Amino acid sequence: MDVVAPLPRPAAGDLLDGFSLEMTGKDVAALEAARPAIPDGTRVNVTFLGTEDTELRLAAVRAVRRLGLVPVPHLSARRLRSRAELEAYLSALRDADAADHVFVVGGDPTVPLGPYDDALAVLRSGLLQEYGVRHVGVSGYPEGHPAISEPALWSAIEDKAAVLREEGLAGSVITQFGFDTEPVLAWLEAVRARGVDLPVRVGVPGPAGIRRLLRYAARFGVGTSAGIAKKYGFSLTNLMGTAGPDRFVHTLAERHDPGRHGELGLHFYTFGGVGATSDWAAAFRTGTHVPAPAPATA
């Protein structure tokens, strides 16, 4: 029987080395099924959604650890109702041997539910180090935030980087996902010009239905013009089917200049498709992935 040799590993495959994934508390079964395609030690961020309770989040965190992966629990500042609630969650994470890495985000509520107005307030609480946190991820927004001004976003990332240095905590940035590399690369240059040298994981949507991608894009203020959609690999006039990040990743790898953009990696927003994203990443890294054809345009 003829043996089909794998395609040569694309240069962009290097960008996937050490990639991270995102899951919700409800994705445990999907993560278990996808585990054979996920490299040992991969970081898996566990979200802090208002629709999920603490036990569901902790069950997901424990599952990530049990599967030989690195849990990165989210702490949503404005969803925390008290200092005691934050301490209780950090204590539970420490008991689960899952407190080394956390990701601190402001969160969705317009009005904080407790004493923490933003991610910076959690970083300044002093509690992270007390409960064994060593590495903290924070957010970056290359295309801005629908509810936060650009000056406030710049102040926030500069202040968070400074606090991490002062507290002796390792850190990194995970960006909001997008469909266009141009604002990402421009934002990276601006970040470095402001003296923020934290490693950055560029947010990438995993393969998903086009309608779902557009729904999340609208929610988070991500640009989806016809030109951007075409560059990414789908058409706004044909919303059937799925789209993957092939073009985005290739373009990012081709244009990445470490001297201007600093250290980069990828973070996949799975949008419920943990298995599809893991399979795509495994195939892309080894050069066995066959890209979908370019979309037809009206």
Automatic annotation (TrEMBL):
InterPro entries hit by this protein: FAD-linked_oxidoreductase-like, Mehydrof_redctse-like
Cofactor(s) needed by this chain: FAD
Keywords, in A-Z order: FAD, Flavoprotein, Oxidoreductase
Pathway info: One-carbon metabolism; tetrahydrofolate interconversion
GO molecular function: methylenetetrahydrofolate reductase [NAD(P)H] activity
Entries under Pfam families matching the protein: MTHFR
GO BP terms in the entry: methionine metabolic process; tetrahydrofolate interconversion
Family listed: Belongs to the methylenetetrahydrofolate reductase family.
Protein name in UniProt: Methylenetetrahydrofolate reductase
Originating species: Streptomyces lasalocidi
Lineage: Bacteria, Bacillati, Actinomycetota, Actinomycetes, Kitasatosporales
